[in-house]
């Protein structure tokens, strides 16, 4: 089982997701009691857009070792967000934060969940926490900028979005950010 797992890790690192998934499946068939086998399998499933299956794999990893890894909970929370289950993501993100209080990612995922649930104030508090941990987090700046824009704070939104693009011009949503900045500039110019 360990040999398949080890080879799966190497394949995953080299970008061979399907080969890695085959190896993790073989490792699990031989030894279903190793949480890391299930976690790596979940990562490959998530990267292959097989998110519901990833949640099941993470359920098993957590069942086997509920106290060990914040990453298991963080991944499952992220998967639940991808499945539009923001309320279901919150307990996982809470547990991830309890296990790894300094991890900068949970507050960003909390903010995404709170935005989807319509709790903008909680989302802004989450983003402030994320930016205290990492003031140069493009992800947190983008999300805070979009929330500020939705709330009508054009100056704050513009500052956050421009800073995010300055930090990482290759952000996946850079086109949307640039368009939002153009719109904000036009609106601010009209005042």
What can you see in these coordinates?
With about 190 residues, the protein is mainly alpha-helical. Helix content is about 80%, strand content about 0%. The longest helix has 16 residues, at about 175-190. The radius of gyration is 19 Å and the shape is elongated.
Looking at this protein, list some descriptive labels.
11 helices; 191 residues; single chain; mainly alpha
Topology:
Elements: H1 2-13, H2 17-30, H3 35-47, H4 51-64, H5 70-82, H6 86-99, H7 105-116, H8 120-133, H9 138-150, H10 154-167, H11 174-189
How confident overall, as mean pLDDT?
A: 94
Total number of helices? 11
Helix content: over 70%
Using the CA coordinates, give the radius of gyration: 19 Å
Major β-sheet, in short? Answer: none
N-end to C-end Cα span: 66 Å
- Strand-pairing-aware structural class: mainly alpha
Question: What is the count of β-strands?
Answer: 0
User: Roughly what fraction of the amino acids lie in strands?
Assistant: under 5%
- The backbone outline, from C-alpha atoms, is elongated
Instruction: Give the SSE string.
Output: HHHHHHHHHHH
Unreliable runs: none
């Amino acid at each position: 089982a360990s040999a398949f797992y080890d080879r799966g890790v190497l394949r995953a690192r080299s970008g061979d997701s399907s080969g890695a998934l085959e190896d993790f499946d073989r490792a699990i068939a031989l030894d279903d009691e190793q949480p890391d086998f299930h976690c790596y399998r979940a990562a490959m499933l998530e990267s292959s857009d097989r998110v519901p299956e990833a949640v099941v794999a993470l359920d098993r990893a957590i069942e086997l070792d509920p106290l060990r890894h914040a990453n298991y909970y963080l991944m499952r929370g992220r998967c639940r967000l991808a499945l539009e289950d923001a309320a279901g993501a919150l307990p996982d993100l809470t547990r991830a934060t309890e296990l790894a209080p300094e991890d900068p990612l949970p507050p960003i995922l909390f903010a995404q969940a709170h935005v989807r649930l319509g709790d903008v104030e909680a989302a802004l508090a989450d983003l402030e926490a994320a930016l205290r941990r990492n003031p140069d987090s493009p992800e947190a700046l983008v999300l805070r900028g979009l929330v500020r824009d939705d709330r009508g704070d054009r100056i704050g939104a513009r500052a956050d979005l421009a800073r995010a693009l300055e930090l990482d011009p290759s952000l996946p949503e850079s086109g949307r950010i640039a368009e939002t900045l153009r719109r904000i500039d036009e609106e601010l110019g009209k005042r």
